[in-house]
Specification:
Helices cover 66% and strands 9% of the residues. It is mainly alpha-helical. The protein folds into two domains: 200 residues, Up-down Bundle (Alpha-lytic protease prodomain-like), CATH 1.20.1510; 76 residues, Cation efflux protein, cytoplasmic domain (Alpha-Beta Plaits, 2-Layer Sandwich).
Length: 304
């Protein structure tokens, strides 16, 4: 089954020229002013360009249908993209820190600050709109690569706001040293954001379970639609990119026909997919004389 999502792939594609355009604006702002803080902002945007290329190609690969070598699909490829982006974010922060520390020794006032700040503000505004779109669509369609890209760009927006505030203070106070100090603060924020992206992506690669509220909805769906069975236990969930996998054991009377047990499983699968769209559901049916269970369906991950 294919999980192709044209909207996700289209947004990933348009992220490439947009990232290049924003990078151009930020580097122009640095060239106009000579500000090391604006240079640091521009260096972070180089990561956006690289990340946009990676996200586009990885999202295309992740949407390939399952095959003989990958029977569960290619969804986890998106996490690899997100991890790479997180690493690139940290690398960019290190480069920024290096430039800023060097500038501390000989801070200089800005050239044409008004024009430079206006250009950088325009770049930040574009990023803010684009990041909001990527995050919303990424979360709606469960695309880790798109969501990570949007979150990184949003951190770039926060960075740009901080840089603008810092440079306005430089102009007002005349203290040129505020420029490299702001660049160092920007680098620290970028490192924090990079590690957040990496941590979230590693969780996906390690088959982390769904969120507690999602698990609660799955448990309720099982409890409400398991009529005819004797109980359910050993619930397992994991998230792999856009796909969610749900598995559990269902206990039925020993004399129940295969046809009747299959009918109950169909109802449960439909109920779970209603609260977790597109979920892959695997149900293992057990006869009651194998393991004793009560009549109340309560999924806690242990026998009831």
């Amino acid at each position: 089954m294919s999980d192709s999502n044209p909207l996700v792939k289209t947004l990933a594609f348009w992220g490439i020229p947009l990232a290049i355009g924003v990078l151009g604006l930020k580097m122009l702002a640095w060239w106009v002013t000579g500000s090391v803080a604006l240079l640091s902002d521009g260096l972070e945007s180089t990561v956006n360009v690289v990340a946009a290329f990676i996200a586009y190609f990885v999202i295309g690969y992740a949407q390939k249908p399952a095959d003989d070598d990958h029977p569960y699909g290619h969804h986890k490829a998106e996490y690899i993209s997100a991890v790479i982006e997180g690493v690139l974010i940290v690398v960019a922060a290190v480069l920024i820190m290096k430039e800023a520390i060097a500038a501390l020794e000989a801070p200089a006032m800005l050239d044409a600050p008004a024009l430079g700040l206006a250009i950088n503000f325009a770049a930040g505004a574009i990023n803010a709109v684009w990041a909001t779109i990527l995050i919303r669509v990424g979360k709606r369609h469960r695309s880790p690569a798109l969501t990570a890209d949007g979150q990184h760009i949003m951190s770039d927006v926060v960075t740009s706001v901080g840089v603008l505030v810092g440079l306005v203070l430089v102009v007002i106070t005349g203290y040129a040293i505020l420029d490299p100090i702001m660049a160092i603060l920007v680098a620290c924020n970028i490192i924090y954001q990079g590690f957040k992206v990496i941590t979230h992506s590693v969780d996906g690669l390690m088959d982390k379970a769904v969120e507690p509220n999602e698990e609660a909805a799955i448990k309720k769906a099982i409890a409400d639609h398991a009529t005819g069975s004797l109980g359910a236990h050993y619930l397992r969930t994991r998230r792999a990119g856009a796909a969610t996998f749900v598995g559990f054991d269902l206990v039925v009377p020993a004399d129940m026909t295969v046809s009747k047990a299959h009918e109950i499983c169909d109802k449960l699968e439909a109920a779970i997919k209603a609260v977790q769209p597109g979920a892959r559901v695997t149900i293992h049916v057990e006869p009651e004389d194998e393991v004793a269970h009560g009549v109340d369906v309560k999924v806690e991950g242990v026998s009831i």
